[in-house]
Specification:
Helices cover about 30% and strands about 25% of the residues. About 50% of the residues are buried.
């Protein structure tokens, strides 16, 4: 693992930005390591799966204009008041006099009897949507949407997807710092530059024409012009049975789109199984990082991504080697080094849309995203909490290793929905995202928090995320052993772990399993 991290995080690889020389170096190195670990080519006899991409940059964005609430239309400025873009691959986006509807949290969750669009035809309309879940303000996790712990329904990605399914022309998410878990500066910087997507056969014409965020004071002004109060409507939207509220207003917005296409690659290897070789256990880690970035005070402008995620690729290679040395398992084991995680989980998204191995024959898997070079811990955390029957396997494994399961820190930030396992999970495949907790063997929780804070402040997505020969690998070894045991248990098993009843991914898994012969 030292060798893999030192190589991939060296300046020669220029921060592993997808495309051109850095990508060629990276995928060549990974293929070499996969071969040495005993893997066979896993993408229909090849090592590589092409990931076609499209980059869209909004240009000449007009003000967001809202009319119908008074003698003078309201006009809001791009950047300071709102940001906008389009998933559609089209040179021009134009929303003209689109009826506005307040749809609460914009959630349709049949398993919870919740539908914020009930009785509404959204075709051609603009949805005004609250961020997060209806019960985000709770201290615990006892609410229908797991309270303080964010669910998929609380993520902005879901809200735009659901608005599109409802036929909306546009969707406006109301930004509020606490439920969003970040300030307007993050939204502004993320949405006022080029947006990256994987290409679709229909050029994403099934999506909304425009997706946008608006500042909370902007939303308050819009609703006030309709004779409504944002706070009162937000309270009502938190109750089951809420009905969407037409505002009697019309929204207009336009911008041009600059479009560029490209191709990146996932690297896929496989260890074929024995008696259940047409059932698959998937292990993933992303190989990409940011490339060249803002220079530090020494002039270093390479974001090497040693922890994020050269360490994950090293873990992937180590797990492949460990399983190869242990001999074939009952089920086949697939190891995928995916691209474009930093651009929005695009490599894993492409795989999930175009799986090399059917998702209804994929038992589950493990995702690795950052192995911290600090000591071992007494505890383990599961990002996303107790969502599926994988938790039973985790608890049994922890017992054999003398470890305990601790609550996830900052559960309200929705970390489960921000790494590559999510692309599989939202299509029904149960995925582990686990790692060492903060209670370190040496120094306890105080030392664990200090190490985590130091990395976030001084190295995360910065030139300082570099490999050092002084790294402590004892904790990395502990975490890799845990991941090996979890994956191997799935690979040697015969059961099909499912999401718990009521989980947001249970219905899609059940549907996938029932769709064809032999599914799940």
């Amino acid at each position: 693992m030292r060798e893999v991290i030192a190589r991939l995080a060296s300046d020669e690889f220029e921060g592993r930005a997808p495309g051109a020389r850095a990508e060629d170096l990276t995928i060549t190195e990974i293929i070499s390591r996969f071969k040495a670990a005993g893997l066979e080519p896993g993408s229909n006899g090849q090592w590589l799966q092409e990931v076609p991409t499209v980059d869209i940059t909004a240009k000449d964005v007009s003000p967001l204009t809202v009319s119908g609430g008074g003698a003078k239309p309201l006009r809001f400025a791009y950047g300071s008041d709102f940001v906008a873009g389009s998933y559609r691959v089209t040179p021009q986006t134009r929303i003209a006099d689109s009826e506005m509807v307040f749809v609460g949290y914009g959630i349709v969750a049949p398993e919870l009897g919740w539908n914020d669009y009930a009785g509404l035809d959204m075709k051609g309309k603009t949805a005004v949507i609250l961020v997060n879940d209806p019960d985000y303000a709770m201290e615990g996790e006892d609410g229908p949407f797991k309270g303080r712990r964010m669910t998929y329904y609380g993520r902005w990605t879901y809200k735009f997807e659901e608005a599109a399914r409802q036929g909306a022309a546009a969707a406006l998410i109301v930004h509020d710092t606490f439920p969003a878990a970040y300030g307007w500066n993050v939204v502004n910087s993320s949405w006022t530059n080029t947006q990256h997507y994987v290409r679709r056969p229909d050029n994403a014409m099934g999506e909304t024409q425009a997706n946008a965020w608006i500042q909370k004071p902007v939303a308050e002004a819009i609703l006030a012009s309709a004779g409504k109060d944002l706070a009162a409507l937000s309270t009502a939207a938190g109750q089951k049975g809420f009905k969407p509220v037409p505002l009697g207003l019309k929204a207009s917005l336009s911008f041009a789109n600059t479009i560029e296409t490209g191709v990146s690659h996932n690297v896929i290897g496989i260890l074929p199984g024995t008696t259940r070789k047409d059932e698959y256990v998937l292990t993933t880690a992303h190989w990409d990082h940011l490339g060249r970035c803002n220079a530090d005070n020494t002039g270093d402008d390479i974001c090497n991504g040693a922890v994020d995620n050269a360490s994950g690729i090293a873990g992937l290679v180590a797990l492949a080697d460990m399983n190869h040395r242990a001999g074939p398992a009952r089920r086949s084991q697939v190891f995928a080094a995916v691209t474009l995680e930093e651009s929005g989980l695009l490599g894993s998204e492409w795989y999930a849309r175009n799986p090399v191995f059917p998702l209804d024959r994929t038992v589950g898997g493990v995702n690795i995203d950052g192995l911290a070079p600090i000591g071992p811990s007494r505890d383990v955390t599961a990002t996303g909490g107790d969502k599926s029957e994988l938790t039973g396997i985790l608890r049994q494994t922890l017992a054999t290793m003398g470890l305990r399961l601790s609550p996830e820190a900052y559960a309200e930030r929705g970390g489960y929905y921000r790494s590559d396992h999510f692309s599989l999970a939202k299509r029904g495949v149960p995925m582990f995202r686990v790692g060492r907790g903060l209670d370190l063997v040496e120094g306890g929780i105080e030392a664990g928090k200090a190490a985590a804070d130091d990395y976030t402040k001084n190295r995360y997505h910065q030139p300082g995320d570099e490999y050092s020969p002084d790294w402590n690998f004892t904790g990395i070894a502990q975490e890799t052993e845990l991941l090996y045991r979890l994956g191997r248990t799935l690979a040697e098993g015969t059961t099909w772990p499912n999401w718990y009843p009521g989980d947001e991914f249970r219905a899609v898994r059940d549907k996938s399993c029932a769709a064809g012969p032999g599914g799940c």
